[in-house]
Amino acid sequence: MRHLVTFCAIFAVVFVPSILLTYLQTHSMMADVFNVFTQVIAHPGKTPDVKTLIDYQPNDALLGLQWLLGFLGFPLAYGAVVVGVSRAYLGQPVRLADAYREALSRWLPILILIVLWFVAIVVVLIAYVGILAVTSAALGAIAGAFRNGPLLTAVMATFLIGVFVFSMILFILLYLVSVVSFIGVVLENLDPVTALGRAFGRVFAGGALWRSTGLALSLTATYVGAFLVLGGGSALAAALINAPALYFIGSGLVELFFVPFAVVVAAVYYYDLRVRREGYDLEMLLERFAGSQPRRPA
Questions:
Q1: If you compute the radius of gyration of the chain from its CA atoms, what whole number of angstroms results?
Q2: Is pLDDT of 296 > 50?
Q3: From CA 294, how far away is CA 284, in angstroms rounded?
Q4: Residue 52 domain-assigned?
Q5: In which domain, by residue range, is 58 found?
Q6: For residue 217, how far is the Cα from the chain centroid?
Q7: Does some domain include residue 179?
Q8: Which pLDDT tens digit goes with each residue over 187-239?
Q9: Which DSSP string corresponds to 58-114?
Q10: pLDDT tops 70 at residue 290
Q11: What angle (nearest 5°) sits at the alpha carbon of residue 165, between those of residues 164 and 170?
C-alpha cells in the first residue's frame, strides 16, 4: 500500500484530463441542477424552472475528445496501473514511465480486451434485465394473489433491496474479472480471448467464488462509504453554494483513489489464486521486467 500514491499518479495521467473534460462539458448543466435544488428548498410548493435543463446540448468537440481519451488513453492507463501493482508486488521499483512503457507494448491486445468486455457487458445487461422483468412479473402475480397491499409493498421492497445489493456485488465481481484479464494480457502475454476466459474461471470457478464474493462485498462497502462521505458531501456543499467544481473534485477524488486501490486488491488476489491453485512461479514473471534480478516477492 505504500505505493498507492504512485499508482494514483499513474492513473491520474489519463483520469485528470478526463475529469476536466467532463467538467467543461457539464458544469453549466450541473449549475442548473443545483439551481433547481435551491429553488425546491427555498420554495417547496412552487414548480422549479427546468427549461435550461431541457434545452441543454452537449459540446460535440469536447464529447469527441472524451471519447478519444476513453478509447486511446484509459486502456493504456489501466494497463500501466496493473504493471505498477505487479512491480510493487514483486519487490521491483515502481516508476510511472516504466509502467506506461510496459503497458504501451501491449496496448493493442488491451484495446481488443476492452472491446470484448464491452460486448460481454451488453450481453450480461440484456440477460439481467430480462431475468429481472420475468422475476418482477412473477413476484407481482404472487403478491397480487393475496390481495394484500402491505404484503405486496413488503415483497417488492425486499426484492428491490435484494436486486440493488446483488447488482453491486455482481458489478464488483465483474470488475475483479476485468483486472484479472488485464493481468493476463499485460503480464502473461495472453491473447484477449484466452485472458478473458481464464479470468472468469479463476474468479467464479470452484471454491474461489465465495472468496471472490467476500472480496467483492468488501470493495463495494469501501466504494459506497467513500462515495457517500466524499462524493455526497461535496455534492451537498456544491449545491448549497452553486459551485459544480466542488462536486467534480469530490467525486473525482473517490474514483482517483478507488480505482488503483481496487486494482491493488484484485491483483494481490489474482497472485494468491495463481500461487495456491496453479503453482504459479512468480520468479518467472519477475524475469520479464528488464534489468531486474530475481528475488523473493515482497
A1: 23
A2: no
A3: 8
A4: yes
A5: 4-286
A6: 14
A7: yes
A8: 778 889 998 888 888 888 767 778 888 887 888 888 888 888 888 888 888 77
A9: --HHHHHHHHHHHHHHHHHHHHHHHHHHHHHHTT----HHHHHHHHHTTHHHHHHHH
A10: no
A11: 100
Residues ≥6 apart with Cβ < 8 Å to 118: none
Distance CA 235, CA 190 (A): 42
CB 169 within 8 A of CB 217: yes
Q: Helix 4-42 and helix 244-278: axis angle, to 10°?
A: 140
Is residue 294 in some structural domain? no
Count of structural domains within the chain: 1
Classify residue 227 by its DSSP letter. Answer: I
Q: Which residue has the cell 488476489?
A: 269
DSSP annotation of 43: -
Tell whether 243 is covered by a domain.
yes
How many Cβ atoms are within 10 Å of 106's Cβ, its own excluded?
21
**206/160: higher pLDDT:** 160
* pTM (predicted TM-score): 0.72
> Which pLDDT score, from 0 to 100, does residue 68 have?
83
- Each as own residue / partner, the long-range contacts of residues 52-57 (CB below 8 Å, 24 or more positions apart, any chain) are 53/29, 56/28, 56/29, 56/32
CA–CA distance, 120 with 163 (Å, rounded to integer): 20
The whole-number average pLDDT for the span 89-94 is 79
Q: Are 269 and 215 in contact (CB under 8 A)?
A: yes
**Residue 293 corresponds to which amino acid?**
Q
Buried/exposed code over 176-208 (b: 16+ C-beta within 10 A; e: otherwise): bbbbbbbbbbbbeebebeebbebbeebbeeeeb
Higher pLDDT, 189 or 52: 189
